[in-house]
Amino acid sequence: MLRTTTCGALTMENLGENVILCGWVQKSRDLGGMTFIDIRDRYGITQLVFNMDDNRDLCEAARSLGREFVIKAAGLVVERSNKNLKMPTGEVEIKITSLDILNAAKLPPFLIEDETDGGDDLRMKYRYLDLRRNPVRNNMILRHKMAQTVRRYLDALDFIEVETPVLIKSTPEGARDFVVPSRMNAGEFYALPQSPQTFKQLLMVSGFDRYFQIVKCFRDEDLRADRQPEFTQIDCEMSFIEQEDILNTFEGLIRTLFKDVKDFDLPEVPRMQYADAMRLYGSDKPDTRFEMQFVELTDLVKGKDFPVFDNAELVIAINAKGCAGYTRKQVDELTDFIKRPQIGATGLIYLRHNEDGSLRSSVDKFYNEEELKKWSSVLNTQAGDLVLIMAGTTDKVRKQLSELRLEMGSRLGLRDKNKFSALWVLDFPLLEWDEETERYHAMHHPFTSPKPEDIALLDSKPGEVRANAYDMVVNGTEIGGGSIRIHDRALQALMFKHLGFSTEEAQKQFGFLMDAFEFGAPPHGGIAFGFDRLCSIFAGLDSIRDVIAFPKNNSGRDVMIDSPSTIDDKQLNELKIKTAL
Amino acid sequence: MLRTTTCGALTMENLGENVILCGWVQKSRDLGGMTFIDIRDRYGITQLVFNMDDNRDLCEAARSLGREFVIKAAGLVVERSNKNLKMPTGEVEIKITSLDILNAAKLPPFLIEDETDGGDDLRMKYRYLDLRRNPVRNNMILRHKMAQTVRRYLDALDFIEVETPVLIKSTPEGARDFVVPSRMNAGEFYALPQSPQTFKQLLMVSGFDRYFQIVKCFRDEDLRADRQPEFTQIDCEMSFIEQEDILNTFEGLIRTLFKDVKDFDLPEVPRMQYADAMRLYGSDKPDTRFEMQFVELTDLVKGKDFPVFDNAELVIAINAKGCAGYTRKQVDELTDFIKRPQIGATGLIYLRHNEDGSLRSSVDKFYNEEELKKWSSVLNTQAGDLVLIMAGTTDKVRKQLSELRLEMGSRLGLRDKNKFSALWVLDFPLLEWDEETERYHAMHHPFTSPKPEDIALLDSKPGEVRANAYDMVVNGTEIGGGSIRIHDRALQALMFKHLGFSTEEAQKQFGFLMDAFEFGAPPHGGIAFGFDRLCSIFAGLDSIRDVIAFPKNNSGRDVMIDSPSTIDDKQLNELKIKTAL
Predict the structure, then answer these.
(1) B515: nearest CA in chain A?
(2) Does domain B137-271+423-547 have CATH number 3.30.930.10?
(3) How far is the alpha carbon of B305 from chain A, nearest alpha carbon, in Å?
(4) ipTM score
(5) Which residues contact B490 (CB under 8 A, 6 or more apart)?
(6) Distance CA A493, CA A514 (A)
(7) Edge-to-edge strand order for the sheet containing A210-218?
(8) Is residue A444 a known part of a binding site?
(9) Which of A174, B164, B414, B481 could form a disulfide with B199 if both were Cys (CB 3.0 to 4.6 A apart)?
(10) Quick check: B184 pLDDT over 70?
(11) Model-level pTM?
């Protein structure tokens, strides 16, 4: 045996034991005739002590060790005179009697400490060293615990984890596929799955009743901030259920995760209609850690010859509590914020409810005190509040005010990463209009069922058809979404028609699924959670990158292994493909 | 709620309850004025009963149901007059008061029964219907249980499951890679991993200490019987360990699997040197459910002017106990068996130890009774035994007799699928000579460490260098293998040199790993189990196909979804590749 214990295990209970430890040299201090070395492994840090008087050679060997050297050290567990009660092992040290260098180490390119001096690029190139740092490794351990908890919870509820194929078929619907040329079927390609959607539905047709999988999925999209070409889903499906069953089952999953992994009691998750979420927060994924809901002023403010309001489809406001004291500069910052190209608003109007009770707005010349009082009343302001008002076309102004609301939430410290607020958003629209292709797209995917009472609207008002679709939102991030699926061939065919598929196209791409619906498909539905995102929220991180062991950069490159890379002509020839640059 | 319970739950304890069941119509019988329907779901079968006298419409609706219709039925749990004690629900039936058809079903193309009339091709095309059959679905449930058990066992031992990337880099070593053209890095390709080998080693460099993953791997090889282009590994790695630690940890895993999943107490797993396995069984994966070890007769039989033996490098024999009564025809069958092209032997010699104690061989004219007695003695034959002898060059004759041994084991009923015998095979050769490329290849992979005492032989006798490598064999199938890895840059570079890599090639392909070894790599080693194979052995199946939900056929095609398939020119253009057929 190389070691008898780990570097996180020894306490006063082990005094007098002879032990062997293995690990990395974290740091070293010489103090008079003594040398102290902190040895580190995944489990903790233990102090080793060497004494010139006891054994000069050994102590000098210890002094020759560099940072990150891998060593094996044997000795006696003794009590420390200078205890460090912050560490589990801080009351003891090991009086070393033998020392072996298992591997030397070059000086790392950045500090292996909780706070490092390494920049992003360097840490990605030497990701294996970055993973040595406690915060990064702890993210991976958190992720492991979450996956274990998910599996335990679902297994206990009779869900079966079934592995679906990674080499599947390319479909034009949705995001861009990664493809894999087939050598045995030259000229043909597999595709990597964007989700196991059709397979899990087939498993329901097979009678699996309850399926789940924690599974890699792939999307060849341009990587905006915080997207990865490969990502992980918790993918689930149930048969013979209604929406209520799914909401209860997976609310239970999320609450169990919070309890078991974070020891946090997530309250019952409130539910909100999509339409209400848009009306009250301007977003289908509102951050409900704070209120600051939208208030509609449209009717109240029209007809006073203020053209911005008079010409607006919608005038909405939020009450930024306690911000009446904002300086001109601070208000200008907010105006600049909403004028940024990615938000694209033209202006911001405010109403101050001053500490002395007076009301002042940036449009005082159009509205008298009486009118401002009405605004104040519907916004329920108190002395010290600042009302921020925006106007425009409904969809745009809602999005814009939503951004401002989040900004105000951040400025007011209302978006604490250690606080968690979850929400179900229900009854999404089935279809959304795509300006670019000038046709309707499935808002979730083409297998989502419309609400039965809305099917009649499919021809006349397709944009108003609601779906049996739901998202779970935590802290303003969509962590999962799903739907009750179509299980009837005719309805599925109708959906494809409305999505612009010809009958032939639909049959070619999804014939296997529609055929399956004819052999006894049960009512079914499911949900998929973005596991990377869920882990990052649990870890209190903004980015998913640090909950992925070996992530890719924004160009889809793994800079550590230098991938993608060119391949041999021999490989290309075997695959019967050529590059065409 | 669509249902109140499942079709496998109701017993005498539920008498008098009103229940709602959902499921598939398994079968239907009309008996006078009664109709009985077996309704099936994943959990079981329950009998529904309808009575013409009670409700004519309902009973007629029931009679109109076809096989595999999906129904919802509500009624009262009553005691059956004609009980079926073989089924958990066989003492009750449900007197139905309401019936809904949730989905009709066309007649399935084959019987959804334990024994089906569907051929392989048809069942693959309608895999979702094949998965409805109990034996196939039970295989998937077994697989799920095994995965859960693996995770529970390893988690309890502080192993962390870390997801390694699927989009990695192509390497020329080993089997052929599947590649994925990169759109964002046109002209470059990712590769799908054949195993996460280098990543798990980097995780050891990162100090993860104990890693595992149940992970999809990919190999673009011609699919001989029972290979799949995508397969699943239980992939594991440990730091600061010796071979003994790995053998103990993973013997524990396999024994836990047998205990928890099959309720079978696997005895302590014996260990055998590779050289001994070859000598005693002619195979590095001997089936140890039965003995029938090889006995070397070379020295004993030479010098009697029998040219077959005199010219042979090796003469070996097995004792087929109780087969002395084999007819001439049966012996001829064995001769034909070993002469088949895939075995390629030229002849078989036998020695009968007849029931009357006499000895008769097929080479009586060269060997007298005295000599045959010596053979009988070393083979420890008893009256009724048949000795089968083969001669030739060492490697060939061992392989040939190994095949014959397995054939005899099968004929003698010694290879019961419900019996399990495991074995560790240790100390594999590091390198093996490849006739085709005329160079040495790594027998396991290039990261396997040589035994320290054999390193000196690398230059002089590379074929004799033993590796710190081990396989676990169950019932004659290799279910897993691994090694203690190289963790020293210089030794790794030496290995690449011996494998024919130039320094530049080695650096280009594996520089990231060799660089990592310079920053403090711990001693480490690991193992990977073929999860599909392990599941098939547990399920008592010959093929891995039926433990995979959606397998591909021998041409790498998924005939259900019709993949691989051609893709749009638009996709090809975006990827900047062309097909070159």
Answers:
(1) A126
(2) yes
(3) 53
(4) 0.95
(5) none
(6) 8
(7) A160-161, A210-218, A230-239, A524-530, A477-484, A469-474, A422-426, A271-273
(8) yes
(9) B164
(10) yes
(11) 0.96
